């Protein structure tokens, strides 16, 4: 890669601040409050003019200020928290190699016809602006190039395009958090809820995941990468399967050329705007250079948990008192693109979202380990995580509950928009799945535990039943 910061002719007045300082203190400074570009792992990013930083230098106690080019698309790259057992030796070198490869790929083919194209071809196409051991900030030509990057990264690196304009710094309000706290305070074992959540069928979890992963010989799906035919087939199949159970679903296109979000709804029996969302992402990512992306764990497991909950809602004749949505997002692997569009749309409509629980990777734990439930240690609303933890103790006591540093699934899109949200994950620790982002992510393998999917799905379902309220109609 040409690391070409010095070659960029004009550094604009804009500079980027990366900091792990508390957002609530930083947001009090008006020039920062209108410069927020999101939180990435433990770091928050602001883009402001240099005068802003000068004016509050006394109040900035941590972080780096980095000059940035005035054109191009910024991308945050972060290494996932992975267990030592599967960590590649020199992951920083691995990133260098893949960025170099990416720069080559995005450079126009030789044989450029005009002098201008030859000139353009010599511009650096990947600009490294900042790096640490586990993260990097780069600039690429365009948003499309940023999205394409996801397919070319080593599997433990995640890329997230940084929005090109400021995003609102909308913390989850105290009122919204109190509402979850109130639900938590009222939760106690309910034998009817227990009999409902226990009715989730492991047989269907198996059949459904085999269809999505393509392990079922009758499935045409080879990949569910958001740009592939397989993702479109999966979206249609999820919609049809969900509608067979009585939900109303919509394929919501969020961007041309991408497979849509699948948004399924159950109307409330009471007159209320309150809405509970449980979700997963159905798109997948394979290994670089392979067309296979079965994603049986990531995130076939979360997707079939949601579908399994829907099948149980139908079997048990459940009608919810408040609105409930079951969502399957696309474009998670390119930086939560589908869920960001949906969460933004809900915020713009002043939607009344009580809580969101995203299921991402529910199946795997290392052989010999007990079944687990991991909650995010950084991104998310603590009250929702506590509700999940308490419901797990009540309805799935077989799970060992703890925190995970594995970070940042679609719940972050909702949390960013100020909606209470958390994630459920397969491990109370870092990622340990040796087939993570690999074309070997199948359901028939050691460590892939359908009972664990069911146990976690029970918790997600119990949270929905307790929060939305319900009646049994048959
Ligand atoms: C949630 O569980 C914890 C740990 O068991 C317990 O201390 C706490 O009282 C519970 N919260 C509520 C509101 O039940
Ligand atoms: C779910 O409940 C139905 C009856 O409502 C029963 O026939 C079925 O065996 C149950 N399945 C499980 C997995 O409990
Ligand atoms: C539902 O509630 C809203 C606001 O409280 C009220 O304006 C509306 O008339 C109610 N609709 C019905 C059908 O009761
Ligand atoms: C959401 O619903 C609750 C309970 O009905 C209500 O008190 C609150 O005003 C609603 N909020 C919005 C933003 O509609
Ligand atoms: Zn995932």
Helix content: 25-40%
Straight-line N-to-C gap? 64 Å
| Attached small molecules | 2-acetamido-2-deoxy-beta-D-glucopyranose, zinc ion
Which sequence of strands runs across the widest sheet? 9-10-13-11-14-17
EC number: 3.4.-.-
Protein name: Peptide hydrolase
InterPro entries: M28_fam (IPR045175), Peptidase_M28 (IPR007484)
Keywords: Hydrolase, Metal-binding, Protease, Zinc
Structure, explained:
Residues 261-445 form the Peptidase M28 domain. This is Peptide hydrolase. InterPro entries: M28_fam, Peptidase_M28. It comes from Obba rivulosa. One of its GO terms (biological process) is proteolysis. With 474 residues, this protein is α+β, with helices and mostly antiparallel strands. It folds into 2 domains: 5-161, no CATH class; 174-472, 3-Layer(aba) Sandwich (Aminopeptidase). Helix content is 34%, strand content 22%. It contains 15 helices and 18 strands. The strands form 5 sheets. The protein has a 6-stranded mixed β-sheet, sandwiched between helices. A 4-stranded antiparallel β-sheet has the order 2-3-1-4. A 4-stranded antiparallel β-sheet has the order 6-7-5-8, with helices on one face. Strand 9 and strand 10 (261-266) form a beta hairpin. Helix 7 packs parallel to helix 13 (382-395) and helix 9 packs across helix 11. 49% of the residues are buried. Mean pLDDT is 90; it is low at 1-11 and 110-124. It binds 2-acetamido-2-deoxy-beta-D-glucopyranose (4 copies) and zinc ion. The site of one 2-acetamido-2-deoxy-beta-D-glucopyranose has 5 residues, from loops. Residues 198-199, 201, 315 line the site of one 2-acetamido-2-deoxy-beta-D-glucopyranose.
């Amino acid at each position: 890669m040409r690391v070409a910061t010095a070659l960029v002719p004009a550094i604009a007045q804009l500079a980027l601040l990366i900091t792990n300082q508390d957002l609530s203190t930083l947001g009090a400074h008006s020039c920062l409050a209108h410069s927020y570009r999101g939180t990435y792992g433990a770091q928050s990013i602001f883009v402001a003019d240099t005068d802003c930083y000068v004016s509050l230098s006394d109040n900035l106690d941590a972080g780096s200020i980095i000059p940035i080019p005035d054109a191009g698309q910024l991308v945050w790259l972060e290494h996932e928290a992975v267990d030592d057992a599967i960590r590649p030796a020199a992951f920083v070198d691995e990133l260098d190699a893949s960025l170099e490869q990416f720069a080559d790929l995005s450079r126009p083919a030789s044989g450029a016809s005009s002098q201008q194209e030859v000139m353009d071809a010599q511009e650096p196409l990947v600009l490294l602006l900042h790096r640490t051991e586990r993260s990097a900030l780069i600039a690429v030509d365009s948003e499309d190039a940023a999205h394409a990057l996801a397919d070319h990264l080593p599997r433990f690196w995640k890329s997230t395009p940084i929005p090109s304009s400021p995003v609102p710094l909308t913390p989850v309000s105290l009122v919204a958090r109190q509402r979850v706290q109130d639900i938590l305070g009222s939760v106690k074992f309910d034998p009817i809820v227990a009999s409902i959540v226990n009715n989730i069928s492991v047989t269907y979890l198996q059949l459904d995941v085999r269809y999505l992963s393509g392990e079922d010989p009758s499935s045409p799906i080879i990949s569910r990468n958001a740009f592939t035919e397989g993702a479109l087939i999966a979206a249609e199949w999820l919609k049809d399967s969900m509608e067979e159970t009585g939900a109303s679903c919509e394929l919501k296109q969020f961007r041309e050329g991408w497979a849509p979000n699948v948004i399924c709804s159950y109307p409330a029996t009471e007159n209320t705007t309150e809405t509970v969302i449980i979700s997963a992402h159905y798109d997948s990512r394979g290994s670089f250079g392979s067309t296979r992306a079965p994603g049986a764990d990531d995130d076939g497991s979360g997707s079939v948990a949601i579908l399994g909950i829907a099948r149980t809602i139908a079997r048990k004749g459940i009608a919810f008192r408040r609105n409930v949505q079951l969502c399957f997002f696309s474009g998670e692997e390119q930086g939560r693109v589908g869920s960001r569009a949906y969460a933004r749309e809900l915020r713009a409509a002043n939607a009344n979202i009580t809580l969101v629980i995203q299921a991402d990777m529910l199946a795997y734990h290392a052989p010999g380990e007990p079944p687990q439930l991991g909650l995010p240690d950084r991104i998310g609303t603590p009250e929702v995580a506590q509700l999940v933890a308490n419901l797990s103790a009540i309805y799935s006591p077989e799970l060992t509950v703890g925190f995970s540093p594995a970070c940042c699934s679609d719940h972050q899109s909702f949390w960013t928009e100020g909606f209470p949200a958390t994630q459920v994950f397969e491990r109370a620790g870092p990622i340990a799945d040796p087939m993570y982002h690999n074309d070997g992510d199948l359901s028939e393998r050691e460590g892939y535990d359908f009972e664990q999917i069911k146990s976690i799905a029970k918790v997600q379902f119990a949270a929905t039943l307790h929060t939305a309220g319900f009646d049994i109609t048959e």
